[in-house]
Amino acid sequence: MENIQKKEGQRLLSIYYTAGYPTLDSTLPIAKELANAGADFLEIGFPYSDPVADGPVIQHSSEQALINGMCVEKLFEQLKDLRQEVKIPVFLMGYFNPVLQYGVQRFCEACKAVGVQGVIIPDLPISEYEDLYADIFKANNLSNIFIVTPQTSEDRILKIDKLSTSFIYLLSSNSVTGSTLEVGESTAAYFQRIQDMNLKNPLVIGFGIATKETFDKATDIADGAIIGTAFVRQLASPNYMERIKDFIEEIKG
Amino acid sequence: MSKYQVNEKGYYGNFGGAYIPEMLYPNVEELRQQYLSIIEEPEFQAAYNQLLRDYVGRPSPLYLAPRLSERYGANIFLKREDLNHTGAHKINNTIGQILLAERLGKKRIIAETGAGQHGVATATVCALKGLECIVYMGAIDIERQAPNVARMKMMGAKVVAATSGSQTLKDATNEALRDWINNPLDTHYIIGSVVGPHPYPDMVARFQSIISEETKRQLLEKTGTDSPDYVLACVGGGSNAAGMFYHFLDDEQVALIAIEAAGHGVDSGETAATTALGKEGVLHGSRSILMQTADGQVVEPYSISAGLDYPGIGPQHAWLFKSGRGKYVSITDDEAMQAGLRLTQLEGIIPAIESAHALAYLEKMTFKKSDNVVVCLSGRGDKDLDNYMKYFDL
């Protein structure tokens, strides 16, 4: 699997949103609109009843998506024609238990079949991934995206870089989703420390990116940034579809 | 090493592990690297044992209950965890973990609680040590368990309502985990049961293992053997059962019986009978047996007993169940309430409704006259008076 690509000077914008929210069938139309509006890649969340790494906004979207009837099986049905409809890279993000119940092998095969480039499963530990699942991911040409936090040790970052393809998900701070990025001295030192390691994977900053200002700050340092909570909040509005273009243009300036 | 204890990778058979987001890794890894060496330090052991003796009131008695024995035609012993300070076995674990947190230099303690027993036990040790204490509790449980909320507040704890999901124990645990993610440096999370990522299930079981350690010694004094025929304990997450079974795991002639809450009945849709209905899955950081939908969404449990109202069991229990070492059964609300009343009338002891589930299973067993049976009386029923009053129209 190739790393995500960017042109010289480009700031990559990725958007996270929850499948099946605000309505069961909004998953693919939102992806198309985001791609048209200029997002560079997408993370589509599949909902879980107990999302421990998420703040209230994404928790609520997961809860509503489950009420709407979203599940892994349904998501793959909705993404059947993904590659005809959406040309930018798409990643799936969610917790491990729904994947385990669907079957890890079956999940990876379904990702490949619909053209998903990779997955982000925050609660699947590196050791279990290596011991049990890495071969299945590789066989399906699927990237497993790992998270690095300000507390992640250098050894562990090097190991993550070795295991990663596509990109590394850099957390701006140790927090659940929906926090605010503050580039204070310690954050700047943390980003500098990672940059100095010259990792082979692109770095994409997530958690706490909500505005043009925070997006620019993040992409001054990293190859790209992910907006989740701030975008999911937009989806609560009745005319959310019309607002997507403005939202992306506002961020990318 | 016993085949029923955790292995070097943090697993019991194929259950356990540490399924946690990277944000929790440094905290959990710090614990994993240090918990055994700290617990084994002579100073730690001395401080732990001294507090258990002088503060908790251990050893708790092993009581040969004469009228229960007569009813069942065997020697029925009750391990009296109900006589501990704060009224249940929960304090054995919080004493251990607060000493560990202190040793790790943590300044801030968080905990989850369902009925409030673990919350009270945590607030108690935080008051004892002068540490900041935040307890997450489901908004619905806060309403149902007002006296325990008041106890925690009196001891200086901040009680935070978990308003997501079903607003009960599972959601309080989610909120505590989120707090730990947001406060990675100075905070220790005191998990109340043998659940969570490795090393929690093993650490909590070790702190609760005092229950079976004392039982063996006391039984030897009373009967001349330290090996009972049957050991019974109730299971929600499973901490009193883990402690009650601990020193009997390798003594295969001891039958280990774990009693889950069937609620309104295993097939009623309102139950917490995890082994009867659950499948292998991952929740709160470990791979275990879990009540869930086909899509892997966690199903809300139900039991009249808030302490058993959890959709999973600890990974060691999942392994004891799967390997056949333990027998896992369930008891309904009605059976448990009757057993609670029965113990009160036969022995003058009002049990916690959790413990009453274990007592209720005696009705379904047949014994030889010489059988020695130990039931873990994990808590006292004071907290349940409201429930008893409503149920029996007292």
CATH fold assignment of the largest domain in chain B = Rossmann fold
Structural class by SSE content of chain A: alpha/beta
Radius of gyration of chain A: 17 Å
- Mean pLDDT rating of chain A: 94
Question: What multimeric state do the chains show?
Answer: heterodimer
- The count of helical stretches of chain B stands at 16
Instruction: Give the percentage of residues in beta strands of chain B.
Output: 15-25%
* Biggest beta-sheet profile of chain B: 6 strands, mixed
Helix content class of chain A: 40-55%
User: Tally the helices of chain A: what do you get?
Assistant: 12
Shape type of chain B: globular
CATH superfamily of the domain at 12-145 and 209-248 in chain A: Aldolase class I
Model regions low in confidence, pLDDT < 50 over at least 5 residues of chain B: none
* Share in helix of chain B: 40-55%
CATH class of the domain at 12-145 and 209-248 in chain A: Alpha Beta
- pLDDT average of chain B, as an integer? 96
- List the uncertain runs of chain A: none
Q: How many structurally independent domains of chain B?
A: 2
Topology:
The complex is a heterodimer of chains A (253) and B (394).
Chain A: E1 12-18, H1 27-37, E2 41-45, H2 56-68, H3 72-78, H4 82-85, E3 90-93, H5 96-102, H6 104-114, E4 118-120, H7 126-139, E5 143-144, E6 147-148, H8 154-163, E7 168-171, H9 185-195, E8 203-206, H10 212-221, E9 224-227, H11 229-234, H12 240-252
Helix pairs in contact in A: 1-12
Chain B: E1 11-12, E2 15-16, H1 25-40, H2 42-56, E3 62-64, H3 66-72, E4 75-80, H4 90-103, E5 108-113, H5 117-129, E6 132-138, H6 139-144, H7 146-154, E7 158-162, H8 169-182, E8 187-190, H9 200-208, H10 210-223, E9 230-234, H11 239-245, E10 255-263, H12 274-277, E11 279-283, E12 286-290, H13 315-323, E13 326-332, H14 333-347, H15 353-361, E14 372-377, H16 385-392
Parallel strand pairs in B: 4-14, 5-6, 5-8, 6-7, 9-10, 9-14, 10-13
Antiparallel strand pairs in B: 1-2, 3-4, 11-12
Protein name (chain A): Tryptophan synthase alpha chain
Family (chain A): Belongs to the TrpA family.
Active site (chain A): 43, 54
